[in-house]
């Protein structure tokens, strides 16, 4: 009987604590897939997930329409708002085109300097090296199954499989 009283007292205390605690509404977690505003205009989220294809299309159109994004000069331009031009390891963008992939065009970074920009002299310093930064993105690759019999036409049915590709997204400076 003594054990029953101790247990019931503990249960009462827990219930009181639960009643006393203020209930805070759960805050939605910030989207971990936020995309840099450097190349993207507008809202690219659909039902809480990033619409990669739409954002990539936006980036490709911006690279094509803005010649400043594809310049490959090894200089820092602090007047531009784009991070690729303000970096000590500047980069430009080129379009990675592949007919057997969806999306067909993906903007990809290319380092503008072999070395890095010295922040004191604003000149290229070859004692440091600019290297590409990669990320993996999901794409759909066209898949043509091998046929045992010889096909009459060389075409294949468009069947796509999800794949992951490494794409260069910027450059950074390393020693050596």
Write a structural description:
Residues 1-42 are annotated as: Disordered. One of its GO terms (molecular function) is cytokine activity. With 176 residues, the protein is of the alpha+beta class. The chain has a domain at 48-146 and 158-176: Cystine Knot Cytokines, subunit B (Ribbon). Helices cover 21% and strands 32% of the residues. The chain is built from three helices and nine strands; from the N terminus they run αββααβββββββ. A three-stranded antiparallel sheet has the order 4-8-9, with no helix packed on it. Strands 1-2 form a two-stranded antiparallel ribbon. A hairpin with a 6-residue loop joins strand 6 (116-117) and strand 7. It starts with a helix and ends with a strand. 16% of the residues are buried. Mean pLDDT is 76; it is low at 1-7, 29-37 and 39-49.
**Tell me, what's the shape?**
flat
| CATH level-four homologous superfamily name of the domain at 48-146 and 158-176 | Cystine-knot cytokines
Q: What is the topology, as strand order, of the major beta sheet?
A: 4-8-9
Number of helices: 3
Portion of residues in beta strands equals: 25-35%
The CATH topology of the domain at 48-146 and 158-176: Cystine Knot Cytokines, subunit B
The CATH architecture of the domain at 48-146 and 158-176 is Ribbon
Structural class determined from secondary elements: alpha+beta
CATH class of the domain at 48-146 and 158-176: Mainly Beta
